[in-house]
Each structure stands twice: as structure tokens, then as C-alpha cells.
Amino acid sequence: MRILQLNLERGWRGGERQVLLTLRELRRAGHETALLARRGGELAQRALAEGHTVHECSGAAGLCAALLRHGRAYDILHAQTANTLSWLALLKGWLRRPVVFTRRTAFTKGGGMARTIWKWRRADALVAISQAAAAQPRSLGLAVSIIPSAVEATPANPAHCSEFAARLDLRGRRVLATAAALTREKDPCTLVRAVHELGKSRDDFVFVHLGAEGDAAEPARQLVAELGLQDRYLLAGFEPAVEDLYALMDVFVLSSRAEALGTSVLDAFLRRVPVAATNAGGLKESLADGRGLDCEVGDHMALAHAMARLLDDEALRQSVIEKAYAYVVREHGPAHMAERYIELYRGLAAPRSRP
């Protein structure tokens, strides 16, 4: 099969990493793949560096032109973001190719819902990365397949870990950390309050917040200053190759208010770091059956207690780590994800002669 993946995001986050993993695995399985991505963007550059075919474009006009030029050359058109689905839905009558959309969010939208439903109905197959992400379209009577995101094991770079640890002076302290943008949906202020609460009973740890700027950055900084946590809660910003840094962590923490799945939690599972997180959306699914400790959204006291338990209870730590590792290897391997997509594609790609 010939499959075109579409993602026009500017940055590099979990969704973009999933696109690149999908391209790799589809190619390994013998399929001809290509990517339609933003010109000069991180995803386009990484895909080109790996030898994938990339159609680069800039903005909506460029996307439409690229689809009109290349779309009919493929058996499947796979929108990996909501905005690319919009254009596939509009051009579907001309393209005459099956459209797949992967939903990576669990947000309940307000305004513009009629347009969203119209787009979803134009897709030939809707995919969600978790039951939480599937809930809203299913509530509208739409069929949704569940294909969870994948994570892959990559060797840590010891030099990166050492340099980062020295830069933040982490030596001799236990390290709790998160990898999350400073956005409202990630709720960093609850995390700051949890760290403050934990610090009332112990001083053997430091908390490292890895993540890009966002709409909650300033409130988080203000709260850190107000609570006097400048030496305890370290806002480290975006860090390339963040996967390396799990080797430094004693506990991984996520305080999200909304989360379709949370691939950073899966990264922690794979790297044998115990997880404490809220039960938002797909996080509840990931942490089920003793794979981590979950707390109610916004409950900083519960989050502080969960962090303390994972620091102090060695038997609990090991139980959580082993259950989480076995689960992520079984359910979230890249090859397994690709197999599920290939099965879906084959059901849609009826033999046809291309015009």
C-alpha cells in the first residue's frame, strides 16, 4: 500500500513523535509511505534525515496545493491532526481516497462542534489513542477503533544525563520530575502546590519540570516564587532528547487536567520509573491494575502523598515498576501499533486503478 501521513504542527511533541514512529514501522513492514508536513518544521527535518519521502508545504494554501498535486497517488490519506482532517474532508470529493483520522485528545469541545462532527463523519475510519479519546465521537454514534500510541526503547546518552545533572546541581538529591508543557491542561500550579506540601516533611529531593512555555507559565512561576520554591522546583524548560533524562528520575509525576493517553507516562513505564499522576482521561487506563498511583484531578495533597509513597516504599516501587514495564512492552510497542494500522488500512484500500 501507499500511505500518506499528514501533520502540519510547528513543534515537536508526542503527536509528531508518533507520526515518525508510524512512518518507520510502515516502511519496515514493506509499505510505501510519505509525509505531508510543515516546511522546515522539526517533524519534516527528522523524517527527511531518516530517508522518508516528505512533501513540505507552508500554510493552508500550500497544504491544499500539495494534496491536489500528490493526494491521488496514495491508497490511504491519514490525518494525524484535526486541522489536516479539515482539509481532507473538504477535498475528499476530488481526492477519492479513503481518509483515516487519529484523535489524540480527550477534550470536550464547545463552540464549533457542528463543524467537528461534520469532519469526523467525512473520515472513513476514526481512530482514538485511548478509550478516553474515543468517548466523545462514540457518544455521537460514530464507530471508533482504539490504537494506542507507541513508545520505543532508546539507549540513554550518559553524557547528556551527566551534563544536565551538573547544570541543575542534582547530585546527592532524589529527583522527582515531569515532562509537560506549561499549559492549563497540564495544570502545573497543582504540581507546584504538591511539591510544596511534600517539602514540609522532607528535604532530600528536588523537582525538575521539563517542558516548553505555555499559557500557564507565568502563574506557575509566580506560585513558585510565592511559596519560596526556587531551589526546590526547577523550571528547566524544553530539553532536547528528554528521554535520556528518565535515567535521573526516582519518580515521574503528571498533574494533567485532561489527557488522552500521556506518552510521557509510557516513557516512564518503559524506563522503569514509577509514576504518580492524576486520573485524567487516558491516564486512568494507563495506571490501572497497580501500574502507578493515581489521584483526583487538582488534588495536590493526594499527589504529594503518592510521591512520598513511591519514594519511601521500596516494595511498592518495585511492584509498580514491574507491572508497568510488562504492560508497556506488551501493549505499546511500535510494531504492534503499526500492525493495527495496517489491518485498518487494508480494510479500506480496495483495489483501484489510479486516474
UniProtKB/TrEMBL annotation:
Q: What Pfam families does its record include?
A: Glyco_transf_4, Glycos_transf_1
Query: Is the Membrane keyword given for this protein?
Result: no
Give the UniProt keywords, A-Z: Glycosyltransferase, Transferase
Q: Glycosyltransferase subfamily 4-like N-terminal domain spans which residues?
A: 13-152
Task: Look up the EC number in the record and give it.
Answer: 2.4.-.-
What GO molecular function terms would the record report?
glycosyltransferase activity
Annotated Glycosyl transferase family domain ranges read 172-325
The superkingdom listed in its UniProt entry is: Bacteria
Entry protein name:
Glycosyltransferase family 4 protein
Q: Which organism is it from?
A: Candidimonas humi
